[in-house]
Amino acid sequence: MERIPSEILGNILEYLVLLNYSPWHFTLINRLWRTCALETPTLWAKISLYSSRYGDIKYNGNFEGDLIELWKTHAGTRAISKGNVTICCDGAQLRDALQRAKSVPVSFEVHADKISYDEPWDISDEYFRDLRIESLSLIMAPVQQMYGAPFYLLWQIVSQSSVSTMERLVFPAQFSLPSVFSSRLDAFAYKLNKLELGPHQIDVLTYYDAQWKERIEHLDIWPENYTIPPPNSTVGAWANLVSLYFGAGSWPHCTSSALEFHRLETLKINGNFYHLDVLYLPALQTPDTGWLNALNVPALRQVTIQLQNASSAEPVLIAPSPIETLILDVTNPKKFTKDSLRTMSSLKYVCVEKWGGASSWEQQLLAMFFQDSDESCPQLEWVEFIKARRTKTRSPRI
Questions:
Q1: Count of CB atoms within 10 A of residue 197's CB?
Q2: Which of 124, 146, 166 is the last residue of a domain?
Q3: Is the pLDDT assigned to residue 268 strictly greater than 90?
Q4: Which residues form the F-box domain (predicted)?
Q5: pLDDT at 114
Q6: Which of 12, 126, 165, 361 has its C-alpha lying 20 to 30 A from 221's C-alpha?
């Protein structure tokens, strides 16, 4: 192993990082492997900022079940790895990691819930000026306010580093994006195309005209484990969205016109539709599944529909769309009927994860898809029942 060229070793270690493995185990093989690892910038491309007080790291060497000693700083403190992520718990570790990352785009996690506001990180702006950001995630406690050390670290990352390579941005529900951050994203974050938000964070995007939000193609709004009354917000048309995901409990108040997603290809609605009681749009006739009927999605290719305990009697009637893949999780068969299929003439694949019908519900579904002479879905090729028998068919006769 001592004879393996360092270039090949570097490629091996970089490949392990891409596979999300921890390459640091291999630094224990011999001195050559360790030296090569420390000099391979890609191994420092994922950095997570924690508190030195978190988890008694200095004393018992335990970090959430996964700890490997990587190197020692000039101050003699240890640096930590969790998988392929480098954990930095003080300024000395962060300075060392940033110097080793060099010009490789870095994915940053700032655990503001673990960093005390009065912690002295002692790192100057110059260490961030040659840094390129690929993604930035902010993790906060439910009722935490952002100030002190966590805010200053985030400020240094956004204001001093290059955001021209940033592709992904993650904010929790309670963090208000400062206008100076948004201005910098407007001016330089041309590659930013994925945004992940807490359910009550949507309104932040409406405080000002942000050009960067027009570049977003993938929007994820995920649920929270705590309850905060959602603010009134205006969600305008996200004309460039390609995929949209709503998590359970994520339904915000809205006061905009009908949502129009002209490039949307994937729509996933996860959770109980009861939450739609807090979603209001002027174009809707009902506070329940009617909102889905009002969507204009001319490019939609795949849709996941989960209807559980929906309150209104109106079935889902999606506007005409070239939907090819349909995933169903329906407890009330009256919510998805033959009429729901009439605008899905391009449908090819159907996956039924759950259907709350009679004992012969598979036969009822097949009849709904194929029995009528008008054949609402003439291109249908595959019907799959996840929790029952699986049926592949092109033109069954029932």
A1: 22
A2: 166
A3: no
A4: 1-47
A5: 82
A6: 165
Residue 254 vs residues 111, 326, 337: alpha-carbon distances, Å: 30, 27, 28
Q: For the range 273-277, what are the long-range contacts, defined as Cβ-Cβ under 8 Å and sequence gap of 24 or more? A: 273/306, 273/307, 273/308, 273/309, 273/310, 273/311, 274/308, 274/309, 274/310, 274/311, 275/248, 275/249, 275/250, 275/251, 276/251, 277/251, 277/311
**Domain of 281?**
177-398
Strands (E), the chain: 46-49, 68-72, 78-82, 85-88, 106-111, 133-139, 168-171, 194-197, 218-221, 232-233, 243-246, 253-254, 266-269, 302-307, 325-330, 349-355, 382-385, 391-392
pTM for the structure as a whole: 0.72
Q: Which of 166, 189, 207 is the last residue of a domain?
A: 166
pLDDT digits 0-9 by tens, 3-18 = 777 778 778 777 777 7
Distances (CA, A) of 199 to 45, 223, 254, 267, 279: 29, 6, 12, 16, 12
The whole-angstrom separation of Cα 185 and Cα 158 is 9
pLDDT over threshold 70, residue 58:
no
